[in-house]
Design the sequence.
């Protein structure tokens, strides 16, 4: 196989077809199946996985400790106070939800647009969505103060004779995020069913056969079933597409429907959605680059995938930059002294550094992606993806922190996160990687049945490779 | 629900022929159709539109999803209307109780939610899943149906089915293997 990699490398210097392909040459239905399923079934547990799980478990312990202390003492252990009532809880909610959006975008919108390059990255991008939504959900649940009463947010007939306030964006959030979590889970599970059947049939241990068999629900690949399956999958994609746009729009309403200067702006929904896709793709790259190197999946997650994701990051990054520019423009053009004051405070007030760091991370550094060399070099892409992740966190920080100075100087204050804020945040990062590691160990991280549809492409590429070598080997 | 199951007419559920390529399977399906067989099923490791087309399946799933979406919209809006206007009217500065623009977001979300759930449950129900047992799993080589092999089964329910003739017909299509499927 190494030999093949060398041959492809040599061929790709002369013919861009080889770097532009979404799959390596020479794959058949059986090699695709065996290669992906063997990661779970045959290759055993690599040492690196255990190290990763150990570190992630440490993060989960921090999470449990932070939640435990919070429940014992109340939200006063956080840095939130009267002008800045939201703090880390909302920053991290928005950050995680945004990260999740790339998974839905890849699996749904790119499916509808018939983008073949989505095929090898959609499964773990969807898993990423689910886990990110789990992490996101923790924050508002704890932020309500008495999480054991969080079910009061749901409309149900109750002895108190009350209903939730359906006119509040915070209640819209409950519906948007819970719908999003449910639909993402359904989409992910439906996508997994044929692959679980493959795992059932490939597993050698009877216990695994039963476990995967239960998940596969008796799937047997009947043409009649495929027909309805494809319809269901396509309809789910069609439903998830407006949903994903609505979720971050609703999240942005949490801010935009208020009357706080700097928040009450019509640019918020589109710019939040673009920012979500921006940060989500950055997270997909952050995960895909190490995973493809670690598990030797460069045939399936090719240079083309990385380059395309880099282009999406560049495009959505420019939309986000436009959003920042418009915020500045509104502050000036509205001639509203509070809007203007907000912008002056944001750029040169006590938290001005955060604003400029955000501009550096989200607007300036990603411009390097214009260079083909950067898009083609995995470690550079990885570094930029990390910078974007940080930048998008800073963006939410800057927006939420706007609360510290509003209309009346007498109500101004400061916000400093405490160790418990950081603990909860780091803890959710630990939880995210913990779940992700379990996922790559126990489930096929690339959609096997969809990769099978790319086999003819791989065969054509193999043919081309052979033709190319025949052409060059002759004097 | 009957107490005693009907005694099957034939000792096999059907004949299962295994092919090593999608083109081969498609040819076989066409040949079987030409021969007059109608009760058959193809098994493939990846979705193949041509085969579904060849077998002439009707798909009612989109209607179920549309129904789910309409119910979701009515439930979502109805719930908010009932809660805000009838059950718990709250006068905030004389603003209208039936403030429909602010009900749109949740109506949209419940529409999507109900439609998505009906897409998944509808697909399961129409496909008869979960179905832990199916006779076709009795054939050992059927394990490859989820890897790289393509199968065609002619069921013994088919009016043209004949133990001898059907087996010979399938064998003539050049399958990798051919097996009788136990009930």
Sequence:
């Amino acid at each position: 196989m190494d030999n093949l990699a060398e041959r492809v490398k040599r061929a790709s210097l002369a013919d861009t077809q080889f770097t532009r392909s979404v799959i390596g040459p020479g794959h058949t239905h059986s090699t695709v199946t065996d290669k992906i399923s063997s990661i779970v079934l045959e290759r055993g547990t690599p040492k690196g996985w255990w190290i990763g799980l150990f570190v992630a478990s440490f993060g989960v312990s921090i999470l449990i400790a932070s939640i435990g202390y919070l429940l014992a003492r109340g939200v006063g252990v956080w840095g939130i106070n009267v002008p800045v009532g939201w703090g880390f809880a909302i920053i991290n909610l928005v950050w995680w939800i945004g990260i999740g959006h790339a998974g839905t975008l890849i699996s749904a919108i790119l499916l509808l647009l018939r983008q073949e390059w989505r095929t090898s990255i959609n499964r773990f991008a969807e898993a990423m969505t689910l886990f990110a939504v789990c992490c996101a959900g923790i924050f508002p649940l704890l932020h309500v103060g008495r999480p054991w009463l969080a079910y009061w947010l749901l409309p149900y007939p109750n002895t108190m004779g009350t209903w939730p306030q359906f006119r509040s964006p915070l209640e819209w959030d409950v519906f948007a995020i819970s719908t999003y979590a449910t639909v993402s889970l359904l989409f992910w599970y439906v996508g997994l069913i044929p692959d679980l059947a493959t795992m059932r049939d490939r597993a050698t241990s009877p216990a695994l056969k039963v476990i995967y068999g239960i998940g596969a629900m008796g799937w047997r690949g009947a043409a009649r079933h495929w027909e309805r399956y494809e319809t269901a999958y396509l309809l789910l994609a069609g439903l998830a597409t407006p949903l994903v746009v609505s979720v971050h729009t609703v999240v942005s309403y949490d801010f935009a429907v208020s009357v706080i200067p700097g928040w009450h702006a019509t640019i918020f929904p589109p710019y939040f959605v673009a920012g979500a896709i921006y940060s989500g793709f950055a997270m997909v790259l952050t995960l895909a680059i190490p995973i493809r190197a670690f598990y030797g999946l460069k045939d399936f997650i090719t240079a083309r995938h990385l380059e395309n994701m880099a282009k999406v990051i560049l495009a959505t990054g420019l939309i986000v930059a436009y959003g920042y520019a418009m915020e500045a423009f509104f502050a000036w053009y509205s001639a509203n002294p509070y809007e203007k004051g907000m912008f002056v405070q944001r750029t040169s007030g006590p938290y001005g550094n955060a604003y400029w760091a955000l501009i550096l991370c989200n607007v300036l550094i990603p411009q390097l992606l214009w260079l083909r060399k950067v898009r083609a070099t995995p470690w550079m892409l990885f570094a930029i993806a990390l910078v974007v992740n940080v930048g998008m966190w800073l963006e939410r920080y800057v927006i939420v922190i706007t609360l510290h100075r509003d209309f009346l100087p007498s109500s101004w204050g400061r916000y400093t996160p405490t160790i418990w804020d950081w603990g909860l945040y780091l803890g959710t990062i630990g939880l995210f990687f913990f779940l992700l590691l379990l996922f790559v160990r126990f489930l096929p991280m690339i959609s096997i049945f969809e990769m099978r549809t790319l086999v003819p492409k791989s065969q054509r590429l193999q043919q081309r490779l052979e033709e190319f070598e025949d052409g060059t080997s002759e004097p | 629900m009957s107490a005693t199951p009907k005694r099957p007419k034939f000792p096999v559920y059907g004949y299962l022929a295994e092919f090593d390529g999608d083109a081969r399977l498609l040819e076989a399906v066409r040949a079987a159709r030409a021969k007059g067989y109608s009760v058959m099923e193809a098994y493939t490791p990846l979705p193949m539109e041509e085969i579904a087309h060849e077998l002439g399946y009707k798909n009612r799933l989109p209607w179920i999803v549309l129904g789910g979406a309409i119910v979701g919209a009515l439930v979502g809006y109805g719930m908010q209307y009932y809660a805000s206007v009838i059950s718990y009217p709250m006068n905030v500065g004389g603003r209208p109780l039936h403030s429909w623009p602010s009900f749109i977001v949740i109506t949209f979300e419940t529409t999507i939610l109900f439609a998505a759930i009906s897409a998944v449950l509808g697909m399961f129900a129409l496909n008869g899943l979960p179905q832990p047992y199916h006779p076709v799993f009795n054939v050992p080589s059927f394990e490859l149906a989820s890897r790289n092999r393509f199968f065609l089964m002619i069921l013994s329910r088919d009016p043209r089915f004949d133990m001898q003739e059907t087996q010979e017909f399938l064998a003539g299509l050049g399958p990798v293997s051919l097996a009788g499927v136990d009930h």
In short: Chain B has a mean pLDDT of 84. Strands of chain B lie at 14-19, 40-43, 150-155, 177-181.
